[in-house]
């Protein structure tokens, strides 16, 4: 777990320990080792993060074409239909990435209530029948020109920006329930309620997980988080059981062979795809489950196609790239020049990392089915642009990394290193 250091000795609030309750000299030494790189002032940004992002997007384009070409040919008489649209989304996302990369992240702190208000407004507009586009029984999109925009995707960034701003502003009183927990829970609750009304329970739970994890990292008291989670658990159970399709997904997760032609159909064919891939896969373009067995293989279950065509080695490679992305994001948070940058960087990393984790768990049958896209790879412009925006902001934060000399406060002073008896003599003299 990651917890913040003692705030009385942390003028930036930007350093975390990979332990709970460990603040001795060995813990300090571990943080110093982690932050011992040279570098001061403005840099060009984290090139490793940028490279991994571009690599994931490139692999995503290749696998998306492999997964969607036959379906696109049948539906639209154009095998490259989804591929061409995804290329447009990728170009738009890269433009956004390089734009926000050059915008100082402190600007979001000054515009936070405008960003928050626009996000809430867009989520409200989705619920208006004349404005929101309904598909698959859910009203989640707004039509803009020839494209559909999913406001919930961009609302992730707005929520993280607000929480990061608020935590940095109130860092000395985060232990208080009415300051450290309640205001953030209320704002998160507004987002969760609007998304649940679409209806989209899975994304609503995802927003709650984002909020609780970031509050935990910031140092909000654990009893506030655990207590509220236990209090909300009955509401989650009620939301699942009152809809047959949600309860069916839970039953399919518990016993995938219970209803192989209905609620378990998608999960079973996902597992068959992984099993058919073996170690090295069937070969690029040679997968069978995408041939109208696996519903919508180019979206939420793209990882199953990757598993079938590239095998265990391909899956491990993709997971390794996500691991590097998360590592660089946490590294940027550790080196951020202030509390706001730290919380913002960690939150944005969490947006991508948690979504990738949930998507992988869903397609492998480790959690009940939920429609969260695989970051940078699944088809969809809103999700792709949101992830590129998150990386662009991370790159900007990394370009303002704190100097190595700025962490000298972590090293024990001469007085701290002195034996206890010497300290007592100095105090009495």
Features of this protein?
three-stranded antiparallel β-sheet, 429 residues, 2 domains, disordered C terminus, two-stranded antiparallel ribbon, mainly alpha
Describe the structure.
The protein folds into two domains: 1-40 and 403-421, no CATH class; 41-402, no CATH class. The strands form two sheets. The protein has a three-stranded antiparallel β-sheet with strand order 3-4-5. The protein contains 16 helices and five strands. β4 and β5 (147-149) form a beta hairpin. It has 429 residues and is mostly helical. It has helices at 25-34, 47-76, 81-100, 106-110, 112-126, 151-169, 177-196, 201-218, 222-241, 244-254, 265-277, 302-335, 339-363, 381-398, 414-417, 420-428; strands at 3-4, 16-17, 132-135, 138-144, 147-149. It is globular and about 55 Å long.
């Amino acid at each position: 777990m990651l917890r913040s250091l003692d705030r009385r000795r942390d003028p930036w609030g930007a350093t975390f320990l990979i332990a709970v309750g460990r603040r001795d000299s060995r813990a300090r030494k571990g943080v110093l080792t982690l932050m011992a790189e040279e570098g001061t002032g403005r840099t060009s940004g984290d090139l490793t993060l940028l490279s991994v992002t571009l690599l994931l997007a490139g692999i995503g384009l290749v696998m998306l074409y492999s997964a969607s070409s036959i379906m696109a040919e049948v539906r639209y008489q154009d095998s490259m239909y989804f591929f061409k649209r995804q290329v447009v989304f990728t170009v738009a996302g890269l433009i956004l990435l390089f734009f926000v990369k050059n915008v100082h992240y402190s600007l979001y702190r000054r515009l936070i209530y405008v960003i928050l208000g626009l996000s809430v407004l867009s989520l409200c507009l989705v619920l208006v029948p004349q404005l929101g586009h309904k598909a698959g029984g859910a009203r989640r999109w707004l039509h803009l020109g020839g494209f559909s925009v999913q406001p919930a995707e961009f609302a992730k960034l707005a929520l993280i920006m607000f929480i990061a701003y608020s935590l940095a502003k109130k860092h000395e009183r985060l232990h208080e329930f009415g300051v450290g927990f309640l205001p953030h829970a209320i704002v998160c609750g507004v987002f969760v309620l609007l998304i649940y009304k679409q209806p989209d329970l899975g994304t609503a739970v995802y927003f709650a997980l984002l909020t609780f994890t970031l509050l935990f990292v910031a140092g909000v008291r654990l009893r506030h988080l655990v207590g509220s989670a236990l209090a909300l658990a009955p509401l989650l159970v009620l939301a699942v059981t009152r809809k047959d399709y949600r309860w069916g997904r839970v039953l399919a997760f518990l016993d995938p062979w219970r209803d192989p032609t209905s609620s378990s159909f998608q999960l079973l064919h996902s597992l068959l795809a992984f099993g058919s891939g073996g170690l090295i896969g069937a070969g690029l373009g040679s997968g069978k489950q995408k041939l109208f067995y696996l519903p919508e293989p180019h979206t939420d279950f793209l990882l199953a196609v990757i598993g079938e065509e590239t095998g265990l080695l391909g899956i491990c490679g993709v997971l390794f790239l996500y691991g590097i992305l998360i590592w660089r994001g946490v590294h940027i948070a550790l080196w951020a020049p202030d509390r706001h940058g730290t919380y913002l960087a960690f939150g944005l990393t969490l947006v991508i990392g948690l979504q990738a984790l949930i998507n992988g768990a869903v397609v492998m049958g480790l959690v009940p089915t939920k429609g969260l896209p695989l970051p940078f790879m699944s088809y969809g412009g809103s999700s792709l642009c949101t992830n590129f925006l998150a990386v662009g902001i991370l790159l900007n934060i990394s370009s303002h990394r704190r100097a190595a000399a700025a962490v000298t406060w972590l090293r024990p002073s001469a007085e701290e290193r002195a034996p206890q008896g010497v300290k007592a003599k100095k105090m009495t003299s």
